[in-house]
Design goal:
Length: about 160
């Protein structure tokens, strides 16, 4: 490992702007040398040149690293799919239970109306009916924002 590699390895920050600030504080000759050799790589599998060094140290290591990266990606996708299916199932269960409870309350309100408690029965049935209509016709804004943020996080990762 060269002195330049050691200097870059000492920079233990994930933020690109911090790396560039560090490079800009170096003398001009060093800046040119660093900018020429500075590479950024992101992902579960190392950069091909690093992968090549692993292969030189231990034949077959590159293949194992790639297989591990592929297995990790497959596992992550299966976990995301399982999480999505669970969220859908939970949401469906909530809707079914909410609908059943709503119908029961509306029926109770109707029974109250039939037994001479018109105002109480109307209020109970009306508020419940409006709540049911509201919950099944749209998604609250806060929940929609959270879903959009989750989708954006997945796209970034």
């Amino acid at each position: 490992m060269s002195q330049l590699d050691n200097e870059l390895a000492d920079v233990s920050c994930d933020d690109i702007t911090e790396i560039l600030d560090t490079v800009q504080q170096m003398p001009d000759e060093r800046q040119e040398e660093v900018m020429i050799s500075l590479e950024m790589h992101y992902g579960p599998i190392p950069h091909p040149s690093i992968l090549g060094r692993y292969e030189e140290l231990n034949p077959g290591a590159a293949k194992l690293i790639i297989e591990n990266g592929v297995a990790e990606s497959t596992h992550r996708r299966s976990m995301e799919k399982a999480t999505l299916h669970k969220e859908i199932r939970d949401r469906q269960r909530s809707q079914y239970l909410g609908f059943i409870i709503g119908i029961i309350v509306i029926v109770l309100g109707f029974i109250l109306i039939l037994n001479g408690h018109a105002i109480t029965g109307t209020a109970l049935s009306g508020v419940t009916a409006l709540g049911l209509v509201g919950s099944f016709t749209g998604t609250p804004v806060k929940e929609a924002d959270t879903t959009d943020e989750r989708i954006n996080e997945k796209n970034i990762a």
